[in-house]
Amino acid sequence: MDKLRIVGGQPLEGEVHISGAKNAALPILCAALLTERPLSLENVPQLMDVTTMAKLLGQMGVEIGARSGGRVELRAARLDNPTAPYEMVKTMRASVLVLGPLLARCGEARVSLPGGCAIGQRPVDQHIKGLQAMGATIDVEHGYIHATASRLRGARIVMDLITVTGTENLMMAATLADGITVLENAAREPEVVDLARCLSAMGARIEGAGSDVIRIEGVASLAGAAYRVMPDRIETGTFLAAVAAAGGRVHLLGAAPGTLDSTIGKLREAGARIEVAGDAIDIAMERRPDAVSLRTAPYPGFATDMQAQFMALDCVARGTAVIAETIFENRYMHALEMQRLGADITIQGNMAVVKGVERLQGATVMATDLRASAGLVIAGLVAEGETVIERIYHLDRGYEGLEKKLSALGAEIERIR
Ligand code: EPU
């Protein structure tokens, strides 16, 4: 298994290009299931999760052209196997995003229940309840969700809690339903908006994406489209947090600064100087960061996917930070690893108190999930001496060439195979 070796202490200097968003690309790839016409995508990141999704769609009968330079063409002319098997869903929970589109297009779907997860329970009850409200019959048997519906019908669905992939699944299902669907308490994440834009380009009738009420008028069929996936706001935030922690001056290109308000606000609070122009962000950090307290929340609140990276920054900050994780109940696995690097962190329930120390010390640590890994990379960049991060396959799931991009910025980081 690959590892990362980092020798900390270098400031980051230079320019970095932001990749397409993983969490927008995954649902958008699933949108290909909704039409027999080709869907042509650009800015799709080269990631393990994208490969896994392509493999899953391929098993169902979707023809997928060669991926090159972020382009991928998909065509679901015929779908002969509307099933997402356990072997795939257990490696990537986002596989559940096939449920809504498969049911809408084929009248049937068999999707494995995802089971446990390193960051929390993550049930899919809201996805199921929403589809039932649209007239689907759903049985959970032998570990699989088995859904059938001759044609889904529009419904008013009030979600009990805000769920990103739940909103995406129901929005996709509703595009082909009979009548109007209204999703209330919908997720407002930019990735939901990006999916809605792609669906609209395919001929779907969607209003309100980006607000908490989304109205979808079902159509008889969707057409093909060409669509460019939005920039990855979490990758962007990860680089920004790395500079704020390690110091330096970096120019980020191809970003979507308008999706990063809470992250940029917190980094300014930490003492970073940040300027935004079009799709570019400039960040400069010349001193030890100030501790920043935060509370994760659905968009536009502070993203849970940025919590580990900010914890790394707080580990070496001046002062004490209080972090509240309100989205996932078990998303502090990285804190124990950061303690191995000398961090002073106390966890109580969903709260973490991080007392900044002057410096961390390199050690061997283990990555437990994608964003935890990103947090550990930042901790490694600011630690004295050598840090080795094991199990970095988690990073490969969601960051395109992270170590190459960091090394181009002057970090001493290499992959050990
Ligand atoms: N939840 C339920 N029932 C449901 C659905 C969700 O109780 O039916 C709960 C979850 O257990 C969690 C909360 O609702 O406590 C929010 O979960 P949500 O459904 O929004 O998460 P998700 O859609 O499974 C997406 C991202 C995650 C990101 C979260 C929160 C994708 C593919 N994944 O997950 O990204 O952390 O939203 O913003 O979009 C990552 O990229 O590393 C990642 C984990």
Any overview of this molecule?
This protein is α/β, with parallel strands linked by helices and 417 residues long. The chain is 32% helix and 26% strand. It has a four-stranded mixed β-sheet, with helices on one face. 52% of the residues are buried. The structure holds uridine-diphosphate-2(N-acetylglucosaminyl) butyric acid. Residues 23, 26, 93-94, 120-127, 161, 163-166, 191, 304-305, 327-328, 370-371, 398 line the site of uridine-diphosphate-2(N-acetylglucosaminyl) butyric acid (EPU).
β-sheet strand percentage: 25-35%
**Which small molecules are bound?**
uridine-diphosphate-2(N-acetylglucosaminyl) butyric acid
Query: Order of strands in the sheet with the most strands?
Result: 23-25-1-26
Average pLDDT over all residues: 96
Give Rg in angstroms: 21 Å
Distance between the termini: 7 Å
Please render the helix and strand layout as text:
Layout: E1 3-7, E2 12-17, H1 22-31, E3 38-42, H2 48-60, E4 63-64, E5 72-75, E6 83-84, H3 86-89, H4 99-106, E7 108-112, H5 125-133, E8 137-141, E9 144-148, E10 156-158, H6 164-175, E11 180-184, H7 190-201, E12 205-207, E13 213-217, E14 225-228, H8 233-246, E15 248-253, H9 261-270, E16 273-277, E17 280-285, E18 294-295, H10 307-315, E19 320-324, H11 333-340, E20 344-348, E21 351-355, E22 360-361, E23 364-366, H12 370-382, E24 383-384, E25 386-390, H13 393-398, H14 402-408, E26 412-416
Parallel strand pairs: 2-15, 3-14, 6-7, 10-11, 18-19, 22-24, 23-25
Antiparallel strand pairs: 1-25, 1-26, 3-5, 4-5, 7-9, 8-9, 11-13, 12-13, 15-17, 16-17, 19-21, 20-21
Helix pairs in contact: 1-2, 1-7, 4-6, 5-6, 6-7, 8-9, 8-10, 8-12, 10-12, 11-12
Bound molecules: uridine-diphosphate-2(N-acetylglucosaminyl) butyric acid.
